[in-house]
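Worked example 2:
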Amino acid sequence: MRRIALAAAAVAALSAAPAAEARGCGNADLDPANATVQQLRHATVCVLNVQRRKHGLRRLRQNPGLVLAGQRHAMDMVERRYFSHSSTAGTPFTVRIRRTGYLRRSGRTLLGENLAYGGRELGTPRQIVRSWMRSPGHRANILQPRFREVGIGVVRRLPVHGMSGATYAAEFGRRHL
């Protein structure tokens, strides 16, 4: 069974890349079962930045707080078998990001989140980003010119039973708007 699921969200707070275009993104086509989380994370950021570059936008830098928020959420979704921007307790992604310290000493901020999971070959970084780019909400987060940082959480399992693949949580941010 081939399956991919997507979800996108964005908030402003006052306090498909063809293979040739992403050729320089090593590991972008790795099956998650044969890759490390670090390889999947770096390849996903690379493919995201290829998309941004194609549209004349600045590249995103990885931020440890956003990585932590994404990794925690991806793991929680897999362990508790759900797929949502809010935890099973109702905690939204903005609160999860705040808990990492990412927003400390920030004034105006902009945050966004893309979620996805894909079974087998649909769980590669290139396929996940390609799917996001075909979805208006996900595409808007990827191509949001004000975003400067990203954190990719990846778990090499799915929130549904019986399939191999990967679950992704991409956290986008910009502090000090």
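Confidence is low (pLDDT under 50) at residues 10-22. DSSP finds five helices and five strands in the chain.
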